[in-house]
Amino acid sequence: MAPAEGTGENHTTTSFNKYAFACALIGSMISIIFGYDTGVMSGAMIFIKEDLKISDVEVEILAGILNICALVGSLAAGRTSDYIGRRYTIVLASIIFLVGAVLMGYAPNYAILMAGRCTAGVGMGFALMIAPVYSAEISSPSTRGLLMSLPELCISFGILLGYLSNYFFGKLTLKLGWRMMLGVAAIPSIALAFGILKMPESPRWLVLEGRLGEAKKILLLVSNTEEEAESRFRDIKVAAGIDPNCNEDVVKPPSVHHGKAVWKELIIRPTPTVRWILIAAIGIHFFEHATGIEAVVLYSPRIFKKAGVTSKNKLLLATVGVGLTKTMFILIATLFLDRFGRRRLLLTSVGGMILALTGLGFALTMVELHTEEKLLWALCLSIVCTYTYVAFFSIGLGPITWVYSSEIFPLKLRAQGASIGVAVNRLMNATVSMSFISIYKAITIGGAFFMFAGIAIVAWWFFFFLLPETKGKSLEEIETLFARKKRPQNEGLEIQPKTNNV
User: Fold this and answer.
1) Rounded to a whole number, what is the distance in angstroms from the first to the last CA of the chain?
2) pLDDT, tens digit, for every residue of 340-356?
3) Residue 237, CB half-sphere, CA atoms under 13 Å: how many?
């Protein structure tokens, strides 16, 4: 008898399923468009402000409105994906991105530019919610960390492409350059909308819809062995409330897994387990942006300018370095998530961020205190600390936020639970991006990064006490980690899987 997926994953082999990887990669490519939209705006804002003659407040609104609209999109995406499936939700996100890119590329004035930015923001909300959920639901426990971190890797790659776009299109005329930067995102949106149609649907969503025959066929494709597919199929049926011995291809959907029933179980009357899961998901999304990553990614040209880099070309090149660092270290995290586990990388990541933010705050404070002379050491320290901060963020908090929050919710609550996490994520992203200029003008730019360092310290303790290790656990088994009433000694390192004597 093959061991069940919820009994320690002893059935999981170390082989690598290329089909599952390809599906997760294609599903995650929607995140490249989102990352590009985020990264390109950091440089485009320099040219937009000059061309459209807008104020710093309007720049802040332009930067942050994307995330306000993404909040709306993410909340809508949860219910949408429960109704039309994970795959068609990705198609919808691509179409919304396409419309937004066309509007921004055309934009003759600030109002049309804002309309395009808002449209793209809704698409972003859909993308951020659906890509990790889809990757989670097709992956095996042994490679789930790798496949679920692909969306964050794609975001970083998109940000890097955005920075490169700034540098090359910035050489065009003022009126054409920034419009090309923003409008070119329409091209991959079209390709992705058609490419997604070749992907399979999430087997877990199919089971919730009662389409067991289709789900089993897909599980055979994305699992390492036939025994693993059978075991995963059995566990998913149990989690969905279907008789595990049922062999029919189509059955009546077991229960309503969308609408008011889900919100009641998730928000109004959650069990202690669901409440802990919800707090963990909201907390990790809150701290991802409350620790300042958006300030560094979006406003890195301003940070380097404050530190003493004055040439526009050098500012954009220094920003490209941020994108390269982010992409490289997220790639490293992607390869090691399933080996070292979520907690170890997360706590190491936040610890390094605290040191880097403190160093950056100190360097920028010294620059502001010596405005009459150029402190080369402070300039170098600012750049080193900025890159160090991005590296530590990218090796842990960046990818793990999406991996962790998408894998911990129970099957029936996963889509809408993940959408709440994304909504919090976008709200914090918007808060930071729309207020950073005002904050550093009020407490100095060095003071702003000291503030982020303080928040990061709180985040480290939150993660240490409230986030158990999920490495190697099936999606159906993870819920039991949050059901423990008492944390066992050394449980913070990792909860060991149970042995199977069958």
Assistant:
1) 7
2) 888 999 999 999 999 99
3) 25
